[in-house]
Amino acid sequence: xxxxxxxxxxxxxxxxxxxxxxxxxxxxxxxxxxxxxxxxxxxxxxxxxxxxxxxxxxxxxxxxxxxxxxxxxxxxxxxxxxxxxxxxxxxxxxxxxxxxxxxxxxxxxxxxxxxxxxxxxxxxxxxxxxxxxxxxxxxxxxxxxxxxxxxxxxxxxxxxxxxxxxxxxxxxxxxxxxxxxxxxxxxxxxxxxxxxxxxxxxxxxxxxxxxxxxxxxxxxxxxxxxxxxxxxxxxxxxxxxxxxxxxxxxxxxxxxxxxxxxxxxxxxxxxxxxxxxxxxxxxxxxxxxxxxxxxxxxxxxxxxxxxxx
Length: 309
Prior knowledge:
By secondary structure, the chain is α+β, with helices and mostly antiparallel strands. The protein contains seven helices and twelve strands. It has two domains: 25-76 and 91-124, no CATH class; 131-304, Cupredoxins -  blue copper proteins (Immunoglobulin-like, Sandwich). Helix 3 runs antiparallel to helix 4 (94-123) and helix 5 (248-258) packs across helix 6. It starts with a helix and ends in a 5-residue tail after the last helix.
């Protein structure tokens, strides 16, 4: 009987393993995609730390799940009712109860430790970042100010409108601090590739709210969509922006243009005008490439769809 049960268990384990391999293979995902478990590719060291925490937390959860599922299947398969005889009872089994208390406690303690270490790393701030950006949220758009870079009209600033997605142009390979503020209701600053979001509160701040965060660098050039992740009113869904990461030299050129007066308009260069003047290919596209403005005129939308019918 023991040999037969062992053979059956081995056969069941092979079937489960085969089903798992087929399931992973059928997804068509690479190893990197599988280990990210749906998260976007990270573009900052902080984001990669959070991805690692997420990956190993899921792996640990799956390992515990497999053990639990295995015990359930083992009990179902090999401890079915076979006679009217009462099986051996294991109530008040001290070693078993100790295992059931100690193992979950260790799991929670280990998870807490790595979560705290990652959180401290992600929320850490340096005394003097390379670039500071003031992020001002309002219904239903964004303004990005660079307080260290002045023009005749004040700090270099980019403001979004209903017809134009605001571009948050920043340097790669430089530390950047974001100071967040809302002029009306609670919004939320969220860039998926940062693996991070933070609520944007109106003044005055309460309950020791931390209104700033810092990334040590964006590790590659590119364009990344940003969103408001807090339901903030009628047009919350259209409150997008774009992060445009340029090499430090290109960022310096961009800021230099933003501080100059455009001879054609007699005003400081806008973000779009400055990028148009620069020669850096797709990275200097003057308008957002990751998202586009939405028509916020509800009557026009209804007319274009036949009145909603």
